[in-house]
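ligand=cytidine-5'-triphosphate
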Amino acid sequence: MQPLSGKIILLGVTGGIAAYKAPELARLLIRRGAEVHAVLTKHALEFVTPLTLQTLTRQPVHTELFQLVREQEIGHIALPERAHLLLIAPASADVIAKLAHGLADDLLTTMALATRAPVLLAPSMSDLMYDHPAVQANLEQVRRYGYRTVEPGVGALACGRVGPGRLPEPEEIVEEVEILLAPKDLEGERVVVTAGPTEEPLDPVRVLSNRSSGRMGYALAQVAVRRGAQVTLVSGPTELPAPRGVELRRVGTAEQMRDEVLAALNGTTILMMAAAVADFRPRTAAPRKLKKGAAQTWSVELERTPDILLDVAKRNEQQFLVGFAAETEELLENAWRKMQEKSLDLIVANDVTVPGAGFEVETNVVKLLDRDGKIESLPILDKEEVAERIWDKVAAMRRRREPG
Ligand code: CTP
């Protein structure tokens, strides 16, 4: 299932240069499963055509008030009543002012008053306008009505200036939408997720590492935020941007990762160890670059790194512990053994030799093995969907644990 399946989103577009991003936003929302109905103000029509939005959304585009009246006459359920969200992107200073004062002089502002769905605004204007006390006061006012706002981005503006006022990228707006509409079944949970590889230095320029991309862990952190958890992501070196709403702590070595995890543990309810932590590190890290000289072979002595999960399990602080087992053979036997050794509640096991599973791909094929020995085999899914299914399992196990 896609994250926005079954969700009806009214996409209000107002007149501003950033309206050119609205079709891309509509496309992304649809790709995530939403049904999108675009509502254009008169001024938006100067920047984007109804035909573009109509073609992308495969729905009639709404521009005039009389259309709404006509729809009701022909028996359609009014859109504002059916919608799960009214998203206005870009939201001009003008529409924000109208919403702050409850004006309803066109279709979009009328719908804003008529709907009981959450309203999300993505303001976009020049930085001079954005900073004006009137605009800031109007934004405060609409927030008091319960409307949510996406912070505008800082950067080069169409007016040639640089500052706050840019419409955030469509991907970021979609992420806000998903945060708003996701079920909040992880509310109250404080989660630590680890992700990525670790790097164990040999000298100042060389490290011992592995091929983990961090994608699985980042997806787990992002999905947990959407579902209401407070999330700290302890990440080894990766190329990935910080997921929205996550407290990101970057580390290098296994030992640094252990220290960050232990420091974040107080108050944590769930630890999700998705990182591919190095099991060994060079016994000594040379302070200067090692020179090859005339050597033809070179041996490095390795020693064990701290086992983070084991250290946490030994503290016996009652966190719900999730481990990961990447195996190439005897998947379930190895996973079960790891679960016992590290007192885990759940282990996510994957056979990295299966096509579509493992480190450097967008997808994964995993089995979830719980402490009661129950096995759930998931099909090949993209990593975000795997993350959703892992959290479904954790949320179900947590609910069962609750008294009553
Ligand atoms: N892990 C950890 N600390 C380590 C190594 C691993 O916390 N120093 C965690 C991983 O994040 C993962 C789980 O333990 O959740 C994997 O268990 P492990 O027994 O270390 O598996 P592998 O690293 O695959 O090692 P092996 O198969 O060689 O036993």
